[in-house]
Amino acid sequence: MNQRGFTLIEGVITIVIAGLLIAAALPNASDWIRNSRIRAAADSMQIGLQQARNEAVRRNTTVSFWLVTDPDPTALTNGCKVSSTGSAWVVSVVSPEDGCASEPSTTTAPMIVAKQPSGNGGSGLSVSALDSTGTAATQVTFNGFGQVTGATSISCIKVANTTTAGSRPLRVAISSAGQVRACDPAVTGSDPRVCLPGCDSST
Predict the structure, then answer these.
(1) Which of 49, 66, 168, 198 has its CA 20 to 30 A from that of 131?
(2) Range name among 14-23, 53-62, 66-75 with the lowest pLDDT average
(3) Which fold has domain 3-183?
(4) Per-domain residue ranges of the chain
(5) CA dist list (Å): 160 to 17, 34, 37, 101
(6) What is the pTM of this model?
């Protein structure tokens, strides 16, 4: 067999090996993408909650964090609705429903402080916000001391992927004192990532 024959065989073998490696890596890559979307959504909500708390303390007044849904995943519009399953959020003084396109303002309702659309990655997410009794909730309000006010405020936001296989759900927990942190329902014991009671269910 001449040199050209060896080169062709080596090329075919290289392509086959590369194909096998790519096929083996694809499931892990899909899991990584799903988990990255969950992490990004949980981090975004945590940031929004902290912004609401900080602004309430700065203004010495009540400021709320609202979960919302919107027909447009890339930009919040005036078609938005407050929802316990929304993956977008708005920080404002009053309800932003049907007014999410408003610019930030300290005088014009809904007096938006900050907002974040769900983005294209939000379409594959499952979000569920609950109050301390386990009932669906749409907002959490912080007072001028940075504490949560109102009996129906969100105390736990569950963020997962609609395709559960290979994905790891996360939680964003809000204590009555106003502390906000992300946690992992799969973690137990004294690990700092452990969830607060009421936010630790894996379902």
Answers:
(1) 168
(2) 14-23
(3) minor pseudopilin epsh fold (3.55.40)
(4) 3-183
(5) 35, 9, 9, 27
(6) 0.82
Q: How far is CA 40 from the centre of its chain?
A: 6
Take residue 185 and report the two structure tokens written for it: 């329902």
- The C-alpha angle 139, 163, 153, rounded to 5 degrees, equals 10
Which residues have C-beta within 8 Å of that of residue 66, sequence separation ≥ 6? 82, 89, 90, 91, 92, 95, 96, 138, 139
Phi, psi of 112 (to 5 degrees): -70, 140
pLDDT in tens, 104-134: 999 999 999 999 998 766 667 899 999 988 8
**165 closest CA partner among 56, 67, 35, 12:** 35
The closest alpha carbon to 49, from 66, 33, 36, 62, belongs to 66
Name residue, tokens 């909730």. 137
